[in-house]
Q: What sequence folds into this?
């Protein structure tokens, strides 16, 4: 009787440990999968001052709270997030196509909200253009 009780106690501790472990493993966000037609999509909004200005206003209002004013991932809400929102000044971000960034903004993933229905496509392209100015 005594033995089966301690066996149960050990089993319970092991199950708790495994559960914790699986949480740690799951803490990594799933990678993005951007469909090919978005990846190679042509940006219909010309880059330049007018687009950057429109993009900056939209970015400051909608995105800076998490992504930070200059895209470093250091917005005021960032420390409440489970996942790092990314560093938009770095090559890992800047080497992506405009279409990649458009898709990610439009459809979101995990803690990244989707802006489909909230921002017009043209506005998203303006933000994509503006985020190019964060390049180091
Ligand atoms: C509530 C916080 C939050 C807001 C607001 C937010 N994002 Fe994000 N964003 C995230 C997080 C967290 C990730 C990382 C998601 C992941 O990898 O699963 C992310 C990822 C991204 C990525 C992909 C970055 C990469 O390196 O591939 C882009 C692009 C992006 N966000 C653009 C935007 C834009 C544009 C806006 C505003 C229109 C915005 N985000 C608003 C939290 C936010």
A:
């Amino acid at each position: 009787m005594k033995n089966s009780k301690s066996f149960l106690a050990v089993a319970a501790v092991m199950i708790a440990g495994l559960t914790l472990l699986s949480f740690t493993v799951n803490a990594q966000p799933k990678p993005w999968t951007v469909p090919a037609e978005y990846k190679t999509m042509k940006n219909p909004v010309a880059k330049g001052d007018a687009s950057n200005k429109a993009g900056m206003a939209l970015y400051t209002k909608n995105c800076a709270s998490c992504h930070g004013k200059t895209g470093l991932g250091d917005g005021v809400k960032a420390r409440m997030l489970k996942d790092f929102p990314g560093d938009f000044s770095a090559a890992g971000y800047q080497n992506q196509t405009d279409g990649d960034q458009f898709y990610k903004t439009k459809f979101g993933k995990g803690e990244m909200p989707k802006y489909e229905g909230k921002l017009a496509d043209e506005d998203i392209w303006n933000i994509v253009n503006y985020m190019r100015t964060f390049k180091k």
In short: The longest helix spans residues 2-26. The chain has seven helices and no strands. The chain has two domains: 1-30, 36-134.
